[in-house]
Write a structure and sequence with these properties.
The structure holds 2 protein chains of 2 kinds. Chain A contains 4 helices and 20 strands. By secondary structure, chain A is α+β, with helices and mostly antiparallel strands. Chain A folds into 2 domains: 171 residues, no CATH class; 134 residues, Beta Barrel (Cyclophilin). Chain A has a 7-stranded mixed barrel with strand order 12-19-16-17-14-13-20. A 6-stranded antiparallel β-sheet of chain A has the order 7-6-9-4-1-11, with no helix packed on it. In chain A, strands 2-3-10-5-8 form a 5-stranded antiparallel β-sheet, covered by helices on one side. The relative contact order of chain A is 0.17. Chain B is of the alpha+beta class. Chain B has 2 domains: 84 residues, Gyrase A, domain 2 (2-Layer Sandwich); 203 residues, Cyclophilin. In chain B, strand 6 and strand 7 form a beta hairpin. In chain B, helix 2 crosses helix 3 and helix 5 crosses helix 6. Chain B is globular, with a radius of gyration of 20 Å. The two termini of chain B are 37 Å apart. At the A-B interface, strand 15, strand 18, strand 19 and helix 4 of A face strand 1, strand 2, strand 3 and strand 4 of B.
């Protein structure tokens, strides 16, 4: 069974949970930006954890199935249509040979996920099927899907027994155009003045058009760095530090304006002062925001971040059990 | 001696990078000593194979560890890192098993020259080349004298990243001889693959084409990233450089550049590599004498 790409959409890529263990050679993890939606998709169609699906950004593709399949669309509200008939999201659906899956326009959120029973069977590259377009590796030929591509689908674990399974209403996230992201302040935050750190946490920031899998850039305030004589090796700009590693989710402020949150396909290190990191659970929230959406950053402790992580893990376990 | 050296470095800053990373800044300023410490600490951490660690990333004057906090609590890791830090101390007696590598570079090549001329409006000094500017602000009489200093002593790979395979290199010379240049005022939108650049205190080879802000001095004919793994030196990894590698940037002319490029094309190119056990304390004590020995190992046979 395969999926034929009749229209690729704006940016549709093969992603799984990500590529880990290679950050030290400069390889970012890639992988689904909204892991909650990606994971629930796999639960709905009965895939093992880590099966690859499609990440669909802003505008959906048109896909033809060459055989019977079970699929689910999760994440952004971008209603799927099968042969032109609207179908529900967050529900396991059946398609037959020759059926065409397309999408209505985006209502809320930014990224939808398509899970297909059996998973997208592109070759693994460095232990993952995630697409990393910068060096053209992983996913389908290392790039976003194009018209005419054909994606092989693996053998489903347990056939079509899951059609009709749906995620309980109370677990379905609502995507707002105003969000709050929790951050742990730290890293090189000592480089910002106290007032600027305060301003960072109180200003309502707006997502600029520079918002993609590499990072999200925001506008709304102006931050100042503590004056110092730049240390050896750092370079002359006050935003510069001796080049260091950037955690995924870390925030930097080149030039004092336009904070950038680095995401799944970002550079792994560089010479800009990092001031904090968006906690892992809230990166799912970030991934569903888009240009002109408004964002506040709220400082939390490590314990609060770990608590949020625990709750997310328990929620996913409960959902998996409900859908099993 | 040992006590004296330890007090030279400030207290390390331990910090959480969200819930999944621990970031440790050993010092705000770059020095060989601080990098040797970062390497020694991360090497030891790697040997311990602690469950819950997914990535260990040494960087120039800092390092970062990615963990699964469900398995390993960040505070537990920090506790262990503080112990390792104390054990490593001033790196006296620490050995790094590494490689010395001959890395050919053509200075003032036509490709980076074309690029730097195109982006002159983003540079501190639109009226000179990156090399002329860098030589001048570092107090060199001529461009040639500056090139001689850059290519006269070997470099150590202190960090890999930004993009896959890009090595940051710091020269094995005393602090007063370290060259330092600013990055472009506004980054370029294009840099040729394999450009030999310089920013802050670091030399790099751009592993892929793309944006960049480092001063452009030349170009290497051989890759540092080979995603198809065609070349022998890339059989184990798509990335050639490893932290702790010692690179000797050797100046080549256009003829040799073309010859090496043809070898790369044909899949026959191999870097000249010698295994080497590097003693950081010897390098700190008398870098130039130790460099002679290192180059002897590389070119001696």
């Amino acid at each position: 069974m395969a999926i034929r790409v009749r229209q690729p959409g704006l940016l549709t890529t093969v992603q799984d949970a990500g590529r880990f263990g290679y950050y030290d050679i400069g390889m970012p993890p890639s992988g689904a930006m909204d892991l909650f939606s990606y994971r629930v998709g796999n639960y709905l169609v009965g895939n093992p954890d880590g099966a690859a699906g499609l990440e669909i950004t802003y505008m959906g593709p048109e896909l033809e199935f060459t055989g019977d399949a079970v699929l689910a669309v999760t994440g952004a509200e971008m209603p799927p249509k099968i042969n032109g008939e609207e179908a529900p999201t967050w529900e396991a659906l059946r398609v037959r040979e020759g059926d065409v899956l397309s999408f209505d326009y985006l209502r809320s959120g930014a990224r939808a996920y398509l899970a297909v029973a059996g998973g997208i069977e592109v070759p693994e590259f460095m232990d993952s099927r995630s697409t990393y377009t910068l060096i053209g590796l992983g996913g389908h030929e290392g790039r976003a899907l194009q018209e005419g591509d054909e994606l092989r689908v693996g053998e489903p674990a347990n056939g079509s027994g899951r059609v009709g399974r749906r995620l309980d209403e109370r677990h379905i996230p609502a995507y707002a155009d105003e969000v709050e992201l929790r951050v742990i302040i730290g890293l090189c935050s000592y480089r910002l003045t106290e007032e600027s750190l305060e301003e960072f946490l109180t200003v309502e920031w707006t997502v600029t058009p520079d918002a993609d899998r590499i990072g999200y850039r925001y506008r709304g305030g102006e931050l100042r760095f503590v004056e110092r004589e730049q240390p050896p090796g750092a370079g002359s700009d006050p935003a510069n530090v001796v080049d260091l590693g950037y955690p995924v989710g870390s925030i930097q402020v080149p030039g004092g304006v336009e904070p950038i949150v680095l995401l799944n396909d970002a550079v792994t290190g560089g010479g800009y002062a990092t001031i904090g990191t968006v906690i892992s659970v809230d990166r799912d929230v970030l991934a569903q925001t888009k240009t002109n959406d408004r964002t506040r950053f709220r400082s939390v402790t490590l314990e609060e971040a770990l608590q949020a992580r625990r709750e997310r893990r328990e929620l996913l376990a409960a959902i998996k059990e409900e859908l099993a | 001696m040992r006590g004296d050296m330890q007090t030279e470095l400030p207290q390390a800053r331990y910090s959480y990078g969200g819930d999944e990373y621990v970031f440790v800044e050993l010092a705000e300023g770059m020095s060989l000593k601080v990098n040797f410490r970062a390497m020694a600490i991360t090497n030891r951490l790697r040997e311990e194979n602690i469950e819950g660690i997914t990535d260990i990333c040494p960087s120039n004057a800092s390092y970062m560890v990615r963990i699964d906090p469900d398995v390993l609590h960040p505070d537990e890791l920090i506790g262990r890192l503080r112990e390792i830090d104390a054990e490593v101390g001033d790196v006296a007696g620490v050995e790094l098993r590494t490689r010395v590598v001959d890395v050919p570079v053509m200075m003032e090549d036509p490709w980076t020259h074309e690029t730097l001329m195109r982006f002159r409006d983003r540079h501190q000094d639109p009226n000179s080349t990156d090399l002329e500017y860098s030589a001048r602000i570092n107090g060199f009489e001529s461009k040639e004298a500056f090139i001689e200093a850059l290519l006269g002593s070997p470099w150590i790979v202190t960090m890999i990243g930004f993009v896959p395979g890009l090595p940051w290199c710091y020269q094995l010379v005393p602090p007063e001889e370290q060259v330092e240049v600013p990055k472009y005022v506004r980054p370029r939108t294009y840099t040729p693959e394999r450009a030999f650049g310089f920013g802050g205190g670091f030399a790099v080879i751009y592993s892929v084409e793309g944006a960049g802000g480092y001063q452009l001095f030349g170009r290497a004919p051989a890759p540092v990233l080979d995603v198809k793994q065609r070349l022998k030196d890339f059989r184990e990894s798509i990335v050639f450089p490893r932290p702790g590698d010692i690179f000797n940037f050797r100046r080549i002319d256009r003829e040799e550049y073309d010859r090496i490029e043809a070898e790369v094309e044909a899949g026959t190119f191999e870097y000249r590599i010698r295994e080497f056990t590097f003693h950081p304390d010897r390098s700190l004590e008398d870098p130039h004498a130790y460099n002679e020995e290192i180059l002897g190992v590389l070119y001696g046979d």
